[in-house]
Amino acid sequence: MKILVTASVVPDIYSVVRPSDDGTGAVVQASSLTVNPADKQTLSKAMSVHGAEVTVLSVAGNDAAGALGLARAMGAFRVVRIDASPADAFCAASHTAEFLAKNDFDLVLCGALSWDYATGEFPRWLSHLSGLPLLDGVSDFSAAGDGFSAERKTDKAVQRIIVKDPLILSCGKDIFPENEIRIPSMREMMTAMRIPAEVIRPSVGFKPEKEFYDYSRPLQKPPVKFFEKEEYERLAEIILSASRGDKMDNAASDAIPVFSGRLYAHVKGADAPEGIVPEFSVVEEISVPAHRNLRDARVVVSGGMGAGLQAWRPIESIACLLDGAVACTRPVYQSGLRGYFEHVGQTGEKIAPRLYIAAGISGALQHVAGIIRSERILAINTDPQAEIFKYADYGVVGDAADVLGALEKILTNMCQRD
């Protein structure tokens, strides 16, 4: 089986990123470049397939050479770098499609959040340009007869399907456990660096379909307003107002967060077309529990590992009272406490509710990247120095279950009076 893994190279999360002086671009002072985390998971899955011949392809400049050494050290049969700096997902997909026209593979694996500020458009552009069918939301796959058995997760169900190759698999966050990604030894890395990636110099360039402009830093928030227990009634009024659609005084900008929320940018241009739908048969389908869609909820009530088990009953109750949605952090989802469809963050849903209630959430940048466009954030945490309070408009220092339980009672009474 021949597998191609596409990999983007990005600044690591500790790199300093700022707008250029004229605001037309971003200046990255990279502490180091690394393979996109989503692509590391995809590569790890490919390497776990018995007997697979794995090729890694990246569209990147010469400064990515060191980062791509990781792919070789992880055991990739072949590492190829197309010497270009793609301005968007379309450009990256165009170069990749040219490579596919000259090289045959059974599977092409893409991390769903590769290139183009994690817009998720790369797999669709690649399908459109290469003519290969695309299966998205893939969380597992294996060889099956003359095709593949694949598991994919949608907003409504988990499906096990049989599909024929060749095709593109857009792999989700479950494709390989993040904590099981093998870290090569220093000896393996040094050996890999002696075998540089094959370099292909493209004959033509491609004009991007999307333009990112007016880069800026996130607006400096005023200090968080903390509420004491005797002020919960006022806090409940703010929560109720958000659920009813009353305009809040800092309506979200139409700019999008880029570089994991470290900058904002405006964007214009064509969206990627839908990928070519493959022929497949559904072997098994398991419906997921009914739930409110995170992307269109005015209020989202979310819990982290610090919330504790007792907090989930009032989290669900408050969300139900307000016709809101329930969300969670990646560690909560990975622990099995909540479903994949509730995961918000850099590798989960990106949301923009009127109010985001963060209970027992520390405020790691990976999570903040998914909630940065919220109009207002209410943080509840036992630690007054928790990072989440830097992003919050309102705060309560206390146990999540106790605070939410008290707010639940007040909100219930308010709703009954109305």
Please characterize this protein's 3D structure.
The chain has 418 residues and is an alpha/beta fold. The chain folds into two domains: 2-210, 3-Layer(aba) Sandwich (Rossmann fold), CATH 3.40.50; 224-245 and 298-417, Rossmann fold (3-Layer(aba) Sandwich). Helix content is 25%, strand content 29%. The chain has ten helices and 23 strands. Strands 13-7-6-1-8-12-9-10-11-18 form a ten-stranded mixed β-sheet, sandwiched between helices. A six-stranded parallel β-sheet has the order 15-23-22-21-19-20. Strands 14-17-16 form a three-stranded antiparallel β-sheet, with no helix packed on it. Helix 9 (365-371) links the parallel strand 21 and strand 22. Helix 2 (65-73) crosses helix 5, helix 3 runs parallel beside helix 4 (122-130) and helix 7 runs parallel beside helix 10 (400-417). The relative contact order is 0.12. The model has no long low-confidence stretch (mean pLDDT 89).
